[in-house]
Amino acid sequence: MARFCAGLRPGEPPDGQRLLGEAFSAYCEARFETDAQQKPELMLLANLQAGFHEQIRLQAEIAEALNTSLANSKELASTDLARDEEQKQRQQGPVTRGTVPT
Questions:
Q1: I need a surface site. Which of 29, 41, 67, 78 has the fewest CB within 10 A?
Q2: pTM score of the predicted model
Q3: pLDDT in tens, 6-15
């Protein structure tokens, strides 16, 4: 495990991988832990460290995705709905008066 962690970039995320190294070390420690309370705690710690590393690494992309303007979202939704309705009508064919589409 030490050799694997030595290959990770030093420092803090987003560029560094210190948290990732700590997470893998905790996973490794949990693998050999026999204490029934300590083992899941180590797994939780490792999961949190890995998740936090990824959150920091991807925060800019996440923020950009969440900051999409509402107007664009509404336009996209209405465009998708109109397209779906057109496709549905094409598949059903023309509706004549007094008939029920199937």
A1: 67
A2: 0.63
A3: 999 999 999 9
